[in-house]
Design goal:
By secondary structure, the protein is mainly β. It is built from one helix and eleven strands; from the N terminus they run E-E-E-E-H-E-E-E-E-E-E-E. The strands form three sheets. A five-stranded mixed β-sheet has the order 5-11-10-7-8, with no helix packed on it. Strand 10 and strand 11 form a beta hairpin. It starts with a strand and ends with a strand.
């Protein structure tokens, strides 16, 4: 998993990694979108591992199997009492191009996570049924640091088999 520095994303050796569709940065504000087959397992591993755990992620899913889109972040701006106000809006883009709102909410409302990456509190849980079209979907997240006035838009492809 990529690491974070004050200059953006870095690899394990400290070399800069350019932003990608699923990893964005704006100064010290960094966000990564991951899709996991088991949110509870990922949260447990995240909360009990040091350093950050290896994350089980997926690039394709089968019908009637649940998955979750989750966000890892660092570097939000604090308000006058030292708290961040980071929110997320999730969307799913279907293979035919329809952009569907998929929920959202508060992602981080505590002190800024400057030295380490944190797992955001909001997630998008989803699954596909028999009538959903097969093909390549895009899971999207619009993450806004309301205090810092920054917005990062991320996406991750997901194939429905």
């Amino acid at each position: 998993m990529p690491l974070a520095s004050t200059a953006g994303w870095t690899d394990g050796a400290g070399k800069p990694i350019p932003d990608s569709e699923s990893m964005r940065s704006d100064g010290e504000f960094l966000v990564q979108l991951v899709i996991t087959p088991d949110e509870a397992e990922l949260r447990k591993a995240w909360n009990t591992s040091s350093p950050a755990p290896a994350l089980r992620t997926v690039e394709s899913v089968k019908r009637a199997v649940s998955s979750s889109a989750m966000l890892i972040l660092r570097g939000c701006a604090p308000n006058a009492i030292g708290q961040c106000e980071v929110v997320v809006e999730f969307f799913v883009v279907t293979p035919s191009g329809k952009r569907v709102p998929a929920g959202g909410g508060p992602l981080w409302t505590s002190e800024p996570p400057r030295a380490t990456l944190v797992l955001g509190s909001a997630s998008m849980n989803f699954g596909f049924g028999a009538t959903d079209e097969a093909g390549l979907y895009s899971v999207q997240a619009k993450v806004t640091d309301r205090i810092g006035g920054r917005t990062l838009e991320l996406s991750r492809p997901l194939r429905l088999e």
